[in-house]
Specification:
Helix content: 55-70%
Shape: flat
Order of helices and strands: HHHHHH
Length: 144
């Protein structure tokens, strides 16, 4: 494993927990939450996913996912649409970068794989989203 991969991997894994997730696994949503989707009514997770799908940028999609995180397995259905959205923004990914991306994403899964509880599934999902977001940022064209 290259030095660069180790450094990037370490940095990403340290950022894998969404800021809104509580460490005790309880839902982090509260009336003052920054989530742009209102908590009233049914199908909240679906409405959050729909809001993510309407994002204009990968960064916006990731911020919605992070601000709406519950800290449990529902986050799989929130982080995944953001990850998918960000993947679509990446153009002309070099083979060696794709290999690194896949390795880092696998590292996210491996980091939390031995832990039980839905909170850890959330952490792994957001870790993978952070990896994808990094590559989306690296491949985003610079506007002049």
């Amino acid at each position: 494993m290259s030095k660069t991969l180790i450094l990037v991997s370490t940095a990403l894994l340290s950022l894998s927990v969404p800021a809104s997730a509580k460490t005790d696994g309880a839902p982090s949503r509260n009336p003052a939450s920054a989530c742009p989707v209102k908590a009233t009514g049914g199908d909240l997770v679906e409405r959050i996913a729909a809001a993510i799908g309407k994002s204009k940028t990968c960064d916006q999609a990731a911020k919605i996912a992070e601000s709406c995180a519950f800290g449990d397995s529902k986050d799989l259905h929130i982080a995944a649409p953001a990850d998918e959205f960000c993947r679509k923004t990446i153009k002309d990914l070099k083979p060696e970068d794709k290999t690194m991306w896949e390795a880092l994403s696998q590292k996210c899964s491996d980091k939390y794989d031995t832990h039980q509880g839905t909170m850890y599934r959330s952490f792994a999902a957001f870790c993978r989203l952070n990896v994808t977001k990094l590559f989306a940022e690296l491949y985003e064209p610079i506007e002049e």
